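Action item from last week, closing it out:
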Amino acid sequence: MFSLRNLTRRASGMVKRSLPVKRKTCAATFMVINRRAHETTEKEKDELEDEEYDELSSRFLGIAPGGHGALVLQPYIKWGANKKRNTTPELQLEEAVTLLKTLQNWRVVDKMCVSLMNLKKKELLGKGNLESLKIKVRSNPEITAVFISTNLLQQVQIQELRHILGVPVYDRYSIVIQIFRAHAKSQEAKLQVAIAEIPYMWMKLNVVKETREEHVGTFESHRKLLQVRETKLKNALLKLKAQRHLLRSKRLQNKIPTIAVVGYTNAGKTSLIKALTGDSSLHPRNYLFATLDVTIHQGILPSRLKVLFVDTIGFIQDVPATLIEPFVATLEDAMNADIILNVHDASHPDRQAQMDHMQATLKGLIKDQVVINVANKIDRISEDIPRLNMLGVSATKLIGIDGLRDELDKSILGATGRTIVRIRVQSGSRASAWLYKETTVTNVEADPENAQYLFMDVITTELQLKMFRVFLKKYE
């Protein structure tokens, strides 16, 4: 193989020896070779940066391919304004355990709840609780990490606890990021996860600077690496937003109503969409954050109206806003939908806290859309559904699905300004063909008084009716 240097020399020599008529061709060849060489260099540079970042992020995020045996600690405020009154420490602990079990090769060795006055202490815990935790960790060789189930620990707290306990310490941010990394499949999802971890990387790097863990030159190199990566990712996110806006515009042009399916993680959103659409390509999975992509699936309502169901990433309590922020680019697809279908897990013991969290989250995201609340997994509970004050369904057993379709049908007509009207047209006419093409025909009956005419029941907007009248004047 020729080296780049030899290729450029050879091309240069060819220019000198060639006849004048060939010079443009040789010059063009040189430019192509030079451009390819530049592209190769840039590619190699990007690959080196990626390798360096992977190494740094694995260290900062505490990535453990072999997993950990963890002690899960759930801190809670016992009294005062910051006490959570819609849940219990035990229920919070169980969610933390489920969260940890979502990570491959991780297992729960021990778990405990600890009451605190606040979450601001340098060591987080009081002396008694800290000593008890230290004994638990140091006396059990199976405990190789501690997961403290609070959204974001101060970096000084992580440093202190790691020093005292002698094992890595994780908070919800670092655990959820690792779950996101493992579940991100598409390029869009991977991009959004990459952006979500940048703020955490900066926090870790600042700790490195303050504690002087790295040589000044190494720190500066890592700082520049993060700056470059953050800039590239933000530019890529802007392009993603532009692409999503374009796709959204095309869907609006197609005039197909959209229904966003949102909810707490693992509430059964994908299962419900499968039940409503019959889409066999959907494969719901029973674990947290199984869906990180916004996907769109076509369905048909009882009125024969075509609609699009938008599947979304699940929400969860006690994670920093910076973790969810990057996903807003794709969540905008859902939040601009005509109807919001808010799915709750009726069988979950902590459902009230989950419902409250979803209500507060949606308040900051949606505009003035109709929100239909659905209690999923009713086949797993014994209490009356009316007490839940929402529609009850079981996506897996197909209980209540027909009733939900009817409710969606009724709501989507009002939300999109559509009405059902009966129009008399001649059989086989241009007018009947126009109605079939431009509206949703729900029923057709022959005119009993004149067999050459039909009564067509159609779902239409006011604009479509105006267009139909214009069409009639022109062609009928």
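Closing note: The first strand starts at residue 69 and ends at 77.
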